[in-house]
Amino acid sequence: MQALNLKEEAAKLETQLESSCHDLKLSKECHLLGRFLEIVKKDSSQAADVYKSNCLDGRDGESCYQLGQLYHTEKAMVDHGEAFAFNRRGCELGNAKCCLDAGLANLSDNLDEGCVGKDLSLAFQYVQRSCQLGSGFACHLLAGVYVAGIPGIVERDLSAAFRHDFEACKQLNFPPACASLRATLNVTTKATLDPSSGV
Fold first, then answer.
1. Domain that holds residue 97
2. Which of 32, 176, 188, 198 shows the greatest Cβ crowding within 10 Å of its Cβ?
3. Which residues, 6 or more positions from 50, have their beta carbon under 8 angstroms from its beta carbon?
């Protein structure tokens, strides 16, 4: 009896979401419909259609990102080029996760790892944008970039590295950045206290 009630409630929810999406054109409800189709009904194909329409017509960055994830992971749909295209669109719409994914896609020529071609300058720009939009992970990645530098693209800048990890830790609550800050402060403190360090 309980299983029947759950099925009835699920059917009602689907009907409500379809109405809100298709009739009222509410982008957030369209995204929820896509999630319902993907997670509850296990229909990735239908979910992808909803995400795609909502990304392009509804200008919903979250739907762009979710469609990109399907293109990355769904066996019958894998197409990293399409994933990049929709993540790029989502980034333009202000979605931090899309910007980060688009950046990561430009780190390598290895298509098997979800990349679309090595372009470190473009990767840096996308990750930088993701950080600006509030991704703690992206800010932490940028800190690592500034620690090492990228010849011809980004100069080594430990001050910038510290600032990005500080933002990722204190403002965006990204624990790995906090650990990195503690390690940096410990090294600095030891160097200051050790007369042989020359500091």
1. 1-133
2. 32
3. 21, 30, 31, 33, 34, 37, 63
